[in-house]
Amino acid sequence: MRDLDVRTALRRELTEQHAGDARTLIIEEMGIWSGSVRIDIAVVNGELHGFEIKSARDNLTRLPAQQVLYSQVFDRMTLVVADRHAEKAEQIIPAWWGTILASAQTNPDRGVTLRNGRPGHINPTPDAIQSVRLLWRQEQLAILDRHNLAKGFRSAPSTVLEKRLVSALPNDILRSEIREALKARAWLRKSADNESKVSVRTNFNPLRTTSGTDGWTRSNGGDALITPAPGQHIKI
């Protein structure tokens, strides 16, 4: 059972679940942290719901770092995990993450079976700054404009706009604005040029960090976090 097999089954199920709902957008390989990290599938509607896949051929070595990053920006998270990894994976992910269990059918031509595992819940502690960094600078400015908050900030860099948004808007309004901006994008034309509109900086980790010799930046707690070079895309 490969990642592609699970992804195909998940995409089919999500497409059927949201068929005819113009308010929902399903995005594969959506970038977070200014496009430097990508989640397998994101569903954007009244919530921002991330789906990360761990097939039978995968291992869980990246999951501790992934759960740190994804937990900062998604309203909900679901780990779609092969049966063989499920018990260990549930010990790694936060309690509010849900799971979907993936198993291969006896007849390989029939693909993968998905079934509900652990129920998920709303993220209790999303990070406002990291969430705002899902936006391109022009999207940040457009939101400020809509709320009459852009005066004096039109020439400001994205780092300043982020702080302005977080300090001036209530969290529920801000997260709604972020979701609407994501849905408004022309995802079919998504390219490296789009993501270059947001600068990739090395201070994304809200925790104090120290550099490791392997090219990663690590938090004091030991979780691996990303500090990519501009234009670099990393799937952790």
Report what the structure shows.
Helix content is 34%, strand content 21%. With 236 residues, the protein is α+β, with helices and mostly antiparallel strands. A 6-stranded mixed beta sheet has the order 1-2-3-4-5-6, sandwiched between helices. β7 and β8 form a beta hairpin. α5 packs parallel to α6. The protein is elongated. The two termini are 20 Å apart.
* Number of separate helices: 8
The quaternary organization reads as single chain
Helix share, percent: 25-40%
Query: What is Rg?
Result: 18 Å
- Describe the strand arrangement of the main beta sheet, using strand numbers: 1-2-3-4-5-6
Shape: elongated
* Strand content bin: 15-25%
| Low-confidence regions | 188-236
Mean of the pLDDT scores?
80
Please outline the major beta sheet: 6 strands, mixed
Q: Provide the succession of SSEs.
A: HEEEHEHEEHHHHHEEE
The N- and C-terminal alpha carbons lie at a distance of 20 Å
Task: Summarize this structure as a short list of keywords or feature phrases.
236 residues, alpha+beta, three-stranded antiparallel sheet, 8 helices, disordered C terminus
